[in-house]
Amino acid sequence: MKEIKIQVKNLNLFYGNNHALRNISLDIPTNKVTALIGPSGCGKSTFIRTLNRMNELIHGVKIKGDVIIDGQNIYDSSVDVVNLRRRIGMVFQKSNLFPKSIYENIVYGAKINGLRNKKVLKELVEKTLTHAALWDEVKDRLNSSALSLSGGQQQRLCIARALAVDPEIVLMDEPASALDPIATAKIEELIHELKNNYTIAIVTHNMQQAARVSDQTAFFYIGELIEYDKTTKIFTNPSIKQTEDYISGRFG
Amino acid sequence: MERQFDIQIEKLKKKILKMCSLVDEQVEFSIKAIDENDHELAKLVIERDVKVDKYDLKIEKICQKIFALNQPVAMDLRLIMSAITINTNLERIGDIAVNIAENFLILKSKPDFISATKYFEMSRLVQEMIRNAIDSFIQNDPKLAQKVIRTDSIIDKYNIDNHQILIELMKENPNNIESAVALLVISRQLERLGDHATNVAEDVFFIVEAEMIKHKYEKFIMEDSADEEDDDDEFGQRIDK
Fold this sequence. Notes:
Chain A is 36% helix and 27% strand. Chain A is an alpha/beta fold. Chain A starts with a strand and ends in a 5-residue tail after the last helix. In chain B, helix 1 (4-35) packs parallel to helix 3 (74-107) and helix 3 (74-107) runs antiparallel to helix 6 (177-209). Chain B has helices at residues 4-35, 39-70, 74-107, 119-139, 142-172, 177-209, 217-222. Chain B is 78% helix and 0% strand. The interface between A and B is medium-sized, with 28 and 19 residues.
Protein backbone atom coordinates (compact mmCIF):
# COMPACT_ATOMS: atom_id res chain seq x y z
CA MET A 1 0.00 0.00 0.00
CA LYS A 2 1.46 3.35 -1.00
CA GLU A 3 1.57 6.12 1.58
CA ILE A 4 -0.77 8.98 0.74
CA LYS A 5 0.53 12.54 1.13
CA ILE A 6 -2.46 14.49 -0.14
CA GLN A 7 -6.01 13.27 0.06
CA VAL A 8 -8.59 15.28 -1.86
CA LYS A 9 -12.22 14.56 -1.02
CA ASN A 10 -15.29 15.83 -2.87
CA LEU A 11 -13.59 19.08 -3.82
CA ASN A 12 -15.74 21.68 -5.57
CA LEU A 13 -14.61 25.12 -6.65
CA PHE A 14 -16.69 28.00 -7.99
CA TYR A 15 -15.47 31.16 -9.69
CA GLY A 16 -18.68 33.13 -8.99
CA ASN A 17 -21.32 31.04 -10.78
CA ASN A 18 -18.80 29.05 -12.76
CA HIS A 19 -18.49 25.56 -11.27
CA ALA A 20 -14.81 25.05 -12.18
CA LEU A 21 -14.04 21.88 -10.19
CA ARG A 22 -16.73 19.26 -9.78
CA ASN A 23 -16.55 16.84 -6.92
CA ILE A 24 -12.91 15.89 -7.31
CA SER A 25 -11.57 13.07 -5.14
CA LEU A 26 -8.07 11.72 -5.53
CA ASP A 27 -5.11 10.58 -3.47
CA ILE A 28 -1.60 11.83 -4.23
CA PRO A 29 1.03 9.38 -2.96
CA THR A 30 4.16 10.40 -1.08
CA ASN A 31 7.43 10.78 -3.02
CA LYS A 32 5.77 10.20 -6.36
CA VAL A 33 5.15 12.46 -9.33
CA THR A 34 1.50 13.01 -10.18
CA ALA A 35 0.75 14.59 -13.56
CA LEU A 36 -2.44 16.54 -14.19
CA ILE A 37 -3.46 16.63 -17.84
CA GLY A 38 -6.42 17.85 -19.83
CA PRO A 39 -7.41 20.46 -22.42
CA SER A 40 -7.26 24.17 -21.67
CA GLY A 41 -9.94 25.23 -19.21
CA CYS A 42 -10.41 21.73 -17.79
CA GLY A 43 -9.50 22.82 -14.28
CA LYS A 44 -6.08 21.24 -13.84
CA SER A 45 -4.31 24.51 -12.93
CA THR A 46 -7.21 25.50 -10.71
CA PHE A 47 -6.95 22.11 -9.03
CA ILE A 48 -3.20 22.33 -8.37
CA ARG A 49 -3.72 25.77 -6.83
CA THR A 50 -6.22 24.34 -4.38
CA LEU A 51 -3.42 22.23 -2.92
CA ASN A 52 -1.69 25.26 -1.38
CA ARG A 53 -4.74 27.53 -1.12
CA MET A 54 -3.49 29.83 -3.90
CA ASN A 55 -7.03 30.22 -5.30
CA GLU A 56 -8.02 32.19 -2.24
CA LEU A 57 -6.11 35.11 -3.71
CA ILE A 58 -8.70 35.31 -6.51
CA HIS A 59 -11.80 37.38 -5.81
CA GLY A 60 -15.11 35.50 -5.72
CA VAL A 61 -13.72 31.99 -5.34
CA LYS A 62 -15.73 29.54 -3.25
CA ILE A 63 -14.29 26.17 -2.29
CA LYS A 64 -16.13 23.17 -0.79
CA GLY A 65 -14.66 19.83 0.15
CA ASP A 66 -11.49 18.66 1.84
CA VAL A 67 -7.81 18.72 0.98
CA ILE A 68 -6.10 16.67 3.64
CA ILE A 69 -2.32 16.81 3.88
CA ASP A 70 -0.70 14.53 6.44
CA GLY A 71 -4.03 14.08 8.17
CA GLN A 72 -4.97 17.77 8.38
CA ASN A 73 -7.57 19.54 6.26
CA ILE A 74 -5.71 22.55 4.86
CA TYR A 75 -8.98 24.49 4.61
CA ASP A 76 -9.47 24.24 8.35
CA SER A 77 -9.66 27.73 9.89
CA SER A 78 -6.79 26.93 12.27
CA VAL A 79 -4.31 26.38 9.42
CA ASP A 80 -1.59 29.03 9.03
CA VAL A 81 -1.58 29.70 5.28
CA VAL A 82 1.95 31.14 5.25
CA ASN A 83 3.29 28.07 6.99
CA LEU A 84 1.25 25.87 4.62
CA ARG A 85 2.80 27.53 1.58
CA ARG A 86 6.24 27.08 3.11
CA ARG A 87 5.56 23.34 3.23
CA ILE A 88 4.23 23.36 -0.33
CA GLY A 89 6.53 25.03 -2.85
CA MET A 90 5.26 26.12 -6.23
CA VAL A 91 6.89 26.67 -9.61
CA PHE A 92 5.03 28.43 -12.41
CA GLN A 93 5.09 28.44 -16.20
CA LYS A 94 7.08 31.67 -16.34
CA SER A 95 9.97 32.07 -13.95
CA ASN A 96 9.15 34.73 -11.38
CA LEU A 97 12.57 35.44 -9.92
CA PHE A 98 13.26 38.51 -7.83
CA PRO A 99 15.39 41.13 -9.63
CA LYS A 100 18.23 40.26 -7.30
CA SER A 101 21.34 38.10 -7.41
CA ILE A 102 21.21 34.32 -7.75
CA TYR A 103 22.37 34.08 -4.13
CA GLU A 104 19.73 36.49 -2.84
CA ASN A 105 16.94 34.66 -4.63
CA ILE A 106 17.85 31.43 -2.85
CA VAL A 107 18.29 32.86 0.64
CA TYR A 108 15.27 35.19 0.47
CA GLY A 109 12.82 32.75 2.08
CA ALA A 110 15.32 31.58 4.69
CA LYS A 111 16.07 35.19 5.70
CA ILE A 112 12.35 35.93 6.06
CA ASN A 113 12.19 32.88 8.32
CA GLY A 114 14.86 34.52 10.48
CA LEU A 115 18.01 32.73 9.33
CA ARG A 116 20.97 35.12 9.39
CA ASN A 117 24.07 32.93 9.81
CA LYS A 118 26.14 33.52 6.64
CA LYS A 119 27.86 30.14 6.76
CA VAL A 120 24.50 28.35 7.03
CA LEU A 121 23.06 30.48 4.23
CA LYS A 122 26.04 29.69 1.98
CA GLU A 123 25.57 25.99 2.67
CA LEU A 124 21.86 26.36 1.89
CA VAL A 125 22.66 28.00 -1.46
CA GLU A 126 25.08 25.24 -2.46
CA LYS A 127 22.75 22.48 -1.29
CA THR A 128 19.62 23.75 -3.05
CA LEU A 129 21.42 24.73 -6.25
CA THR A 130 23.00 21.26 -6.31
CA HIS A 131 19.56 19.72 -5.76
CA ALA A 132 18.24 21.77 -8.64
CA ALA A 133 21.15 20.65 -10.88
CA LEU A 134 22.30 24.25 -11.28
CA TRP A 135 25.30 24.53 -8.93
CA ASP A 136 28.01 23.67 -11.48
CA GLU A 137 26.63 26.23 -13.92
CA VAL A 138 26.37 29.19 -11.52
CA LYS A 139 28.77 28.55 -8.63
CA ASP A 140 31.25 31.14 -9.98
CA ARG A 141 28.68 33.91 -10.40
CA LEU A 142 26.35 33.70 -7.45
CA ASN A 143 26.29 37.48 -7.18
CA SER A 144 25.21 38.00 -10.78
CA SER A 145 21.63 39.01 -11.46
CA ALA A 146 19.29 36.03 -11.55
CA LEU A 147 17.71 37.62 -14.61
CA SER A 148 20.98 37.20 -16.55
CA LEU A 149 20.49 33.43 -16.60
CA SER A 150 18.99 31.56 -19.56
CA GLY A 151 15.29 30.62 -19.47
CA GLY A 152 16.02 27.04 -18.47
CA GLN A 153 18.47 28.13 -15.77
CA GLN A 154 15.97 30.67 -14.43
CA GLN A 155 13.34 27.96 -14.17
CA ARG A 156 15.75 25.66 -12.30
CA LEU A 157 16.61 28.60 -10.04
CA CYS A 158 12.88 28.96 -9.29
CA ILE A 159 12.86 25.29 -8.33
CA ALA A 160 15.99 25.79 -6.20
CA ARG A 161 14.33 28.77 -4.50
CA ALA A 162 11.24 26.67 -3.80
CA LEU A 163 13.44 23.93 -2.32
CA ALA A 164 15.38 26.38 -0.14
CA VAL A 165 12.58 26.61 2.41
CA ASP A 166 12.62 22.81 2.69
CA PRO A 167 9.09 22.00 1.47
CA GLU A 168 7.49 18.56 1.56
CA ILE A 169 5.50 19.03 -1.62
CA VAL A 170 6.41 20.79 -4.86
CA LEU A 171 3.64 21.92 -7.21
CA MET A 172 4.62 22.69 -10.80
CA ASP A 173 2.31 24.45 -13.23
CA GLU A 174 3.68 23.83 -16.73
CA PRO A 175 7.28 24.37 -15.58
CA ALA A 176 8.87 23.59 -18.94
CA SER A 177 6.34 24.90 -21.44
CA ALA A 178 8.45 27.92 -22.37
CA LEU A 179 11.75 26.03 -22.57
CA ASP A 180 13.70 24.45 -25.41
CA PRO A 181 14.11 20.63 -25.52
CA ILE A 182 17.50 20.63 -23.77
CA ALA A 183 16.33 22.84 -20.91
CA THR A 184 13.12 20.77 -20.74
CA ALA A 185 15.14 17.55 -20.49
CA LYS A 186 17.11 19.04 -17.59
CA ILE A 187 13.91 20.00 -15.75
CA GLU A 188 12.52 16.50 -16.34
CA GLU A 189 15.71 14.87 -15.05
CA LEU A 190 15.50 17.14 -12.05
CA ILE A 191 11.90 16.07 -11.37
CA HIS A 192 13.07 12.43 -11.38
CA GLU A 193 15.75 13.28 -8.83
CA LEU A 194 13.49 15.40 -6.65
CA LYS A 195 10.83 12.78 -6.15
CA ASN A 196 13.17 10.87 -3.85
CA ASN A 197 12.70 13.66 -1.32
CA TYR A 198 9.51 15.45 -2.31
CA THR A 199 5.96 14.73 -3.37
CA ILE A 200 5.41 16.38 -6.74
CA ALA A 201 2.28 17.39 -8.64
CA ILE A 202 2.78 18.75 -12.14
CA VAL A 203 0.38 20.32 -14.61
CA THR A 204 1.46 19.83 -18.20
CA HIS A 205 0.04 20.21 -21.68
CA ASN A 206 2.76 18.01 -23.04
CA MET A 207 1.53 14.42 -23.14
CA GLN A 208 5.00 12.99 -23.66
CA GLN A 209 6.27 14.97 -20.70
CA ALA A 210 3.51 13.60 -18.47
CA ALA A 211 4.36 10.10 -19.71
CA ARG A 212 8.08 10.60 -19.10
CA VAL A 213 8.10 12.19 -15.67
CA SER A 214 5.08 10.99 -13.74
CA ASP A 215 4.17 7.87 -11.79
CA GLN A 216 0.45 8.48 -12.04
CA THR A 217 -1.68 10.69 -14.22
CA ALA A 218 -5.01 12.39 -13.65
CA PHE A 219 -7.06 13.40 -16.69
CA PHE A 220 -9.40 16.35 -16.18
CA TYR A 221 -12.15 17.49 -18.51
CA ILE A 222 -14.52 20.44 -17.97
CA GLY A 223 -13.88 20.50 -14.25
CA GLU A 224 -14.26 16.77 -13.73
CA LEU A 225 -11.68 14.14 -12.97
CA ILE A 226 -12.30 11.62 -15.74
CA GLU A 227 -9.60 9.07 -15.03
CA TYR A 228 -6.75 8.68 -12.54
CA ASP A 229 -4.37 5.77 -12.72
CA LYS A 230 -0.77 4.69 -13.13
CA THR A 231 0.86 6.64 -15.95
CA THR A 232 1.80 3.44 -17.80
CA LYS A 233 -1.84 2.37 -17.68
CA ILE A 234 -3.15 5.75 -18.83
CA PHE A 235 -0.75 5.85 -21.80
CA THR A 236 -0.98 2.21 -22.87
CA ASN A 237 -4.51 1.19 -22.03
CA PRO A 238 -6.73 3.88 -20.54
CA SER A 239 -10.03 2.66 -19.13
CA ILE A 240 -12.13 5.51 -20.47
CA LYS A 241 -12.55 6.43 -24.13
CA GLN A 242 -12.41 10.17 -23.43
CA THR A 243 -8.93 9.70 -21.97
CA GLU A 244 -7.79 7.64 -24.96
CA ASP A 245 -9.16 10.25 -27.38
CA TYR A 246 -7.38 13.06 -25.54
CA ILE A 247 -3.96 11.44 -25.15
CA SER A 248 -3.95 10.24 -28.75
CA GLY A 249 -4.90 13.69 -30.05
CA ARG A 250 -8.39 12.75 -31.30
CA PHE A 251 -10.25 14.96 -28.93
CA GLY A 252 -13.26 17.01 -29.94
CA MET B 1 -10.22 17.12 -41.77
CA GLU B 2 -8.37 13.80 -41.47
CA ARG B 3 -5.27 13.98 -39.35
CA GLN B 4 -1.86 13.22 -40.87
CA PHE B 5 -1.38 10.60 -38.18
CA ASP B 6 -4.57 8.75 -39.16
CA ILE B 7 -3.48 8.88 -42.81
CA GLN B 8 -0.17 7.22 -41.81
CA ILE B 9 -2.01 4.54 -39.83
CA GLU B 10 -4.31 3.81 -42.79
CA LYS B 11 -1.28 3.58 -45.08
CA LEU B 12 0.33 1.10 -42.69
CA LYS B 13 -2.82 -1.01 -42.44
CA LYS B 14 -3.15 -1.12 -46.25
CA LYS B 15 0.45 -2.28 -46.64
CA ILE B 16 -0.02 -4.99 -44.01
CA LEU B 17 -3.19 -6.18 -45.75
CA LYS B 18 -1.36 -6.40 -49.06
CA MET B 19 1.45 -8.34 -47.37
CA CYS B 20 -1.16 -10.61 -45.73
CA SER B 21 -2.80 -11.41 -49.03
CA LEU B 22 0.59 -12.02 -50.69
CA VAL B 23 1.90 -14.44 -48.05
CA ASP B 24 -1.49 -16.19 -47.87
CA GLU B 25 -1.21 -16.80 -51.60
CA GLN B 26 2.42 -17.92 -51.27
CA VAL B 27 1.39 -20.58 -48.75
CA GLU B 28 -1.58 -21.60 -50.89
CA PHE B 29 0.63 -21.93 -53.99
CA SER B 30 3.35 -23.91 -52.19
CA ILE B 31 0.78 -26.41 -50.92
CA LYS B 32 -1.03 -26.50 -54.26
CA ALA B 33 2.29 -27.17 -55.99
CA ILE B 34 2.65 -30.37 -53.94
CA ASP B 35 -1.02 -31.34 -54.30
CA GLU B 36 -0.93 -30.96 -58.09
CA ASN B 37 2.69 -31.97 -58.69
CA ASP B 38 3.20 -28.52 -60.21
CA HIS B 39 6.93 -27.64 -60.37
CA GLU B 40 6.31 -24.36 -62.17
CA LEU B 41 4.05 -23.16 -59.36
CA ALA B 42 6.74 -24.09 -56.79
CA LYS B 43 9.28 -22.05 -58.76
CA LEU B 44 6.87 -19.11 -58.88
CA VAL B 45 6.62 -19.16 -55.07
CA ILE B 46 10.41 -19.00 -54.84
CA GLU B 47 10.61 -16.13 -57.33
CA ARG B 48 7.91 -14.07 -55.62
CA ASP B 49 9.62 -14.10 -52.22
CA VAL B 50 11.45 -10.94 -53.22
CA LYS B 51 8.05 -9.16 -53.24
CA VAL B 52 7.36 -10.33 -49.69
CA ASP B 53 10.75 -8.99 -48.60
CA LYS B 54 9.98 -5.62 -50.20
CA TYR B 55 6.73 -5.33 -48.27
CA ASP B 56 8.60 -6.30 -45.10
CA LEU B 57 11.00 -3.37 -45.54
CA LYS B 58 8.23 -0.91 -46.49
CA ILE B 59 6.14 -1.78 -43.43
CA GLU B 60 9.13 -1.52 -41.13
CA LYS B 61 9.95 1.92 -42.53
CA ILE B 62 6.38 3.17 -42.04
CA CYS B 63 6.41 1.92 -38.41
CA GLN B 64 9.75 3.62 -37.78
CA LYS B 65 8.42 6.86 -39.21
CA ILE B 66 5.24 6.75 -37.11
CA PHE B 67 7.23 6.06 -33.94
CA ALA B 68 9.70 8.84 -34.65
CA LEU B 69 7.22 11.50 -35.69
CA ASN B 70 4.05 10.78 -33.76
CA GLN B 71 4.93 9.05 -30.47
CA PRO B 72 1.77 6.93 -30.54
CA VAL B 73 -0.01 6.02 -27.30
CA ALA B 74 -2.73 3.63 -26.13
CA MET B 75 -4.37 1.65 -28.97
CA ASP B 76 -2.26 3.38 -31.61
CA LEU B 77 0.87 2.34 -29.69
CA ARG B 78 -0.31 -1.27 -29.48
CA LEU B 79 -1.15 -1.26 -33.18
CA ILE B 80 2.29 -0.02 -34.26
CA MET B 81 4.14 -2.30 -31.82
CA SER B 82 2.13 -5.25 -33.11
CA ALA B 83 2.47 -4.19 -36.74
CA ILE B 84 6.22 -4.67 -36.38
CA THR B 85 5.93 -8.19 -35.01
CA ILE B 86 3.04 -9.14 -37.32
CA ASN B 87 5.19 -8.00 -40.22
CA THR B 88 8.09 -10.18 -39.03
CA ASN B 89 5.78 -13.17 -38.71
CA LEU B 90 4.29 -12.59 -42.16
CA GLU B 91 7.76 -12.39 -43.65
CA ARG B 92 8.69 -15.67 -41.94
CA ILE B 93 5.47 -17.26 -43.28
CA GLY B 94 6.58 -16.16 -46.75
CA ASP B 95 10.03 -17.72 -46.18
CA ILE B 96 8.47 -20.99 -45.04
CA ALA B 97 6.28 -21.10 -48.16
CA VAL B 98 9.53 -20.85 -50.13
CA ASN B 99 11.10 -23.65 -48.04
CA ILE B 100 8.09 -25.88 -48.71
CA ALA B 101 8.35 -25.16 -52.42
CA GLU B 102 12.11 -25.90 -52.38
CA ASN B 103 11.59 -29.17 -50.52
CA PHE B 104 8.91 -30.17 -53.00
CA LEU B 105 11.40 -29.57 -55.83
CA ILE B 106 13.82 -31.89 -53.99
CA LEU B 107 11.03 -34.47 -53.77
CA LYS B 108 10.58 -34.19 -57.54
CA SER B 109 7.06 -35.62 -57.26
CA LYS B 110 4.44 -36.18 -54.62
CA PRO B 111 5.21 -39.54 -52.91
CA ASP B 112 2.49 -42.20 -53.07
CA PHE B 113 2.51 -42.73 -49.33
CA ILE B 114 1.60 -39.05 -48.65
CA SER B 115 -2.04 -40.05 -48.13
CA ALA B 116 -0.96 -42.38 -45.33
CA THR B 117 0.17 -39.29 -43.36
CA LYS B 118 -1.80 -36.38 -41.91
CA TYR B 119 -0.28 -34.05 -44.51
CA PHE B 120 -3.55 -33.06 -46.23
CA GLU B 121 -5.48 -32.40 -43.02
CA MET B 122 -2.51 -30.46 -41.68
CA SER B 123 -1.96 -28.28 -44.75
CA ARG B 124 -5.70 -27.49 -44.99
CA LEU B 125 -5.87 -26.53 -41.31
CA VAL B 126 -2.69 -24.42 -41.46
CA GLN B 127 -4.10 -22.41 -44.36
CA GLU B 128 -7.30 -21.89 -42.39
CA MET B 129 -5.26 -20.71 -39.38
CA ILE B 130 -3.34 -18.19 -41.47
CA ARG B 131 -6.55 -16.86 -43.04
CA ASN B 132 -8.27 -16.61 -39.68
CA ALA B 133 -5.27 -14.82 -38.20
CA ILE B 134 -5.38 -12.32 -41.07
CA ASP B 135 -9.17 -11.93 -40.76
CA SER B 136 -8.88 -11.37 -37.02
CA PHE B 137 -6.44 -8.52 -37.77
CA ILE B 138 -8.68 -7.00 -40.45
CA GLN B 139 -11.81 -7.24 -38.30
CA ASN B 140 -10.15 -6.51 -34.93
CA ASP B 141 -11.68 -9.78 -33.72
CA PRO B 142 -10.11 -11.20 -30.54
CA LYS B 143 -12.45 -14.22 -30.54
CA LEU B 144 -11.26 -15.32 -33.96
CA ALA B 145 -7.68 -14.73 -32.77
CA GLN B 146 -8.33 -17.05 -29.81
CA LYS B 147 -9.68 -19.68 -32.21
CA VAL B 148 -6.40 -19.53 -34.15
CA ILE B 149 -4.41 -19.95 -30.94
CA ARG B 150 -6.52 -22.96 -29.92
CA THR B 151 -6.00 -24.62 -33.30
CA ASP B 152 -2.22 -24.63 -32.95
CA SER B 153 -2.25 -27.64 -30.64
CA ILE B 154 -4.05 -29.69 -33.35
CA ILE B 155 -1.31 -28.75 -35.82
CA ASP B 156 1.35 -29.81 -33.30
CA LYS B 157 -0.41 -33.15 -32.90
CA TYR B 158 -0.55 -33.69 -36.68
CA ASN B 159 3.18 -33.01 -36.86
CA ILE B 160 3.92 -35.61 -34.16
CA ASP B 161 1.65 -38.12 -35.91
CA ASN B 162 3.43 -37.48 -39.22
CA HIS B 163 6.80 -38.14 -37.61
CA GLN B 164 5.66 -41.48 -36.28
CA ILE B 165 4.01 -42.52 -39.55
CA LEU B 166 6.98 -41.47 -41.68
CA ILE B 167 9.53 -43.21 -39.42
CA GLU B 168 7.50 -46.42 -39.69
CA LEU B 169 7.39 -46.04 -43.49
CA MET B 170 11.18 -45.60 -43.58
CA LYS B 171 11.65 -48.69 -41.42
CA GLU B 172 9.35 -50.70 -43.69
CA ASN B 173 11.12 -49.77 -46.90
CA PRO B 174 14.50 -47.97 -47.15
CA ASN B 175 13.49 -46.76 -50.62
CA ASN B 176 11.03 -44.44 -48.87
CA ILE B 177 13.75 -42.67 -46.91
CA GLU B 178 14.54 -39.82 -49.29
CA SER B 179 10.92 -38.85 -49.85
CA ALA B 180 9.95 -39.44 -46.24
CA VAL B 181 12.74 -37.15 -44.98
CA ALA B 182 11.61 -34.38 -47.36
CA LEU B 183 8.05 -34.86 -46.15
CA LEU B 184 9.22 -34.76 -42.53
CA VAL B 185 10.79 -31.39 -43.24
CA ILE B 186 7.62 -30.15 -44.94
CA SER B 187 5.53 -31.33 -41.98
CA ARG B 188 7.82 -29.43 -39.63
CA GLN B 189 7.47 -26.34 -41.84
CA LEU B 190 3.69 -26.58 -41.74
CA GLU B 191 3.95 -26.77 -37.99
CA ARG B 192 6.07 -23.59 -37.99
CA LEU B 193 3.43 -21.89 -40.17
CA GLY B 194 0.93 -22.65 -37.42
CA ASP B 195 3.27 -21.07 -34.86
CA HIS B 196 3.58 -17.87 -36.90
CA ALA B 197 -0.19 -17.66 -37.44
CA THR B 198 -0.53 -18.05 -33.68
CA ASN B 199 1.94 -15.20 -33.11
CA VAL B 200 -0.11 -12.96 -35.39
CA ALA B 201 -3.28 -13.90 -33.51
CA GLU B 202 -1.60 -13.11 -30.17
CA ASP B 203 -0.71 -9.66 -31.49
CA VAL B 204 -4.29 -9.08 -32.66
CA PHE B 205 -5.49 -10.00 -29.18
CA PHE B 206 -3.00 -7.52 -27.72
CA ILE B 207 -4.09 -4.71 -30.07
CA VAL B 208 -7.77 -5.12 -29.23
CA GLU B 209 -7.75 -6.27 -25.61
CA ALA B 210 -4.46 -4.71 -24.38
CA GLU B 211 -3.53 -8.06 -22.83
CA MET B 212 -0.28 -9.77 -23.70
CA ILE B 213 -1.16 -13.42 -23.95
CA LYS B 214 1.96 -14.84 -25.53
CA HIS B 215 3.55 -17.55 -23.43
CA LYS B 216 0.51 -17.62 -21.16
CA TYR B 217 -2.41 -17.90 -23.54
CA GLU B 218 -3.65 -21.23 -22.24
CA LYS B 219 -4.80 -19.37 -19.18
CA PHE B 220 -6.77 -16.98 -21.35
CA ILE B 221 -8.18 -19.66 -23.60
CA MET B 222 -9.08 -22.19 -20.93
CA GLU B 223 -10.20 -19.96 -18.10
CA ASP B 224 -11.92 -16.64 -17.80
CA SER B 225 -8.91 -14.43 -17.28
CA ALA B 226 -8.15 -13.89 -13.62
CA ASP B 227 -5.73 -11.01 -14.00
CA GLU B 228 -2.22 -11.60 -12.84
CA GLU B 229 -1.03 -8.11 -12.11
CA ASP B 230 2.50 -6.93 -11.64
CA ASP B 231 3.55 -5.84 -8.17
CA ASP B 232 3.70 -2.22 -9.23
CA ASP B 233 0.19 -2.34 -10.61
CA GLU B 234 -1.45 -1.85 -7.26
CA PHE B 235 -2.07 1.86 -7.88
CA GLY B 236 -5.22 2.73 -9.66
CA GLN B 237 -8.11 4.84 -8.65
CA ARG B 238 -11.34 4.32 -10.48
CA ILE B 239 -13.60 7.30 -10.74
CA ASP B 240 -17.16 6.60 -9.69
CA LYS B 241 -19.52 8.55 -11.85
